[in-house]
Amino acid sequence: MNRAKNLWISLIAACLALLLVYGLYVMQLKQVEQQQTVQTIVPDVFIPAGTIISEDMLKWKPILKGAVMGGMVFRMEDVVNMEALVPLGTDEPLLDWKLDRYHLLPTIEQATFQIPKEYMLSISSGIRAGDVVSVYISSQDGQSRRLFEHGIKVASVKSASNIEVDDNGQSNLRSRIEDDKERMYASRRAANSMIDHINLNLTEEEWLLMDSLCKNGTHKIVIAFTSASMEGVGG
Length: 235
Hints:
Elements: H1 2-36, E1 37-43, E2 58-64, E3 83-84, E4 99-100, E5 110-114, E6 120-123, E7 132-139, E8 145-146, E9 152-158, H2 172-177, H3 181-189, E10 197-203, H4 204-214, E11 219-224, H5 227-231
Parallel strand pairs: 6-11
Antiparallel strand pairs: 1-2, 3-4, 5-10, 7-8, 7-9, 7-11, 9-10
């Protein structure tokens, strides 16, 4: 009887020892995993291009430190309220180049200026919001030139009825975000109206230069569509 009792006690003690060893192993394994992984932000659902991202679309996911890439996002505040420039797959680590904060808004050094009609000589009919355009100055004395060496971002183009000029079927911005150049081209051929107003993102110095040249009527502005307009390169 005592022998059987001792045997059971030994078996129970051995089981408890095994459980203790296993528990220690699991704890050590988790510690090692924590040391070898970092928490990154991934979409909890598929996020279409052009979507403004909210916190309920996101979650944290551990990844191995060796899999960390440049441009990965590790702070929730760097993602929430950003716009998805490309489609974002579920559980796909977010990269900063795929996000933008309302890319039609001016930068911190800029403001959005509506160019007065009396300043304009011509506007290329293919221009759409989000394009990067070339701005030229035409002078009555014949000394015409490019006004700014760099491209200028278009904030919006409006019709005479104050409606954004675009393709009602597939907007140019949506096609740009999806990198669908065929649809971008088609949307420029299927505009819903003619351009009457144009708004450009300019620095204060750029606007003052344009204003000083044009306000007396001796110079006019020409805004041209360029290859950069189709690429979406910011100016």
